[in-house]
Specification:
The chain is of the alpha+beta class and about 140 residues long. Helices cover about 25% and strands about 20% of the residues. InterPro entries: HINT, Histidine_triad_CS, Histidine_triad_HIT, HIT-like, HIT-like_sf.
Length: about 140
């Protein structure tokens, strides 16, 4: 896990690393991704350092989705993905909560933007799903 002092995104928020800032509020910072997978690919990060979404205090989340929405509109793309990963197994590279806003260019199909395969867990029975439901519900 990245420490606060060495966190790439914390350094961007502090102005120690340059970025192409798009939006900023008291709690978030949004900027262009330097390794984009589509034209207009950008990131929204909380200024508060938290590795995963589950580590982020609720009071630091108020501006995230409105910023994602505003940026998605600003890309001009009709279709887009909002992506947020948590942990290495889920493809998170930078250990600081971040949301990708990734436009899907018109007519690009799977040739541009985020390419996602969605494998269905067909081996899960109705009983398995019910058990998961009950476990999750008890933790809420």
């Amino acid at each position: 896990m990245t420490s606060l002092a060495s966190c790439l995104f914390c350094k961007i928020v502090k102005g120690e690393i340059p970025s192409m800032k798009l939006l900023e509020t008291d709690t978030i910072y949004a900027f262009m991704d330097i390794g984009p997978i589509a034209k207009g690919h950008c990131l929204v990060i909380p200024k508060y350092h938290a590795a995963k979404l589950s580590d982020l205090p609720d009071d630091q989340m108020n501006d995230i989705l409105p910023a994602c929405k505003q940026l998605a509109k600003a890309t001009g793309a009709e279709d887009y993905n909002i992506l947020q990963n948590n942990g290495r197994a889920a493809h998170q590279i930078v250990d600081h909560v971040h949301f990708h806003v990734i436009p899907k260019p018109a007519g690009a199909g799977d040739k541009a933007g985020l390419v996602v395969g969605w494998p269905t867990q067909t081996e899960l029975s109705k009983e398995d799903i019910t058990k998961s439901f009950e476990e999750m519900k008890s933790r809420l």
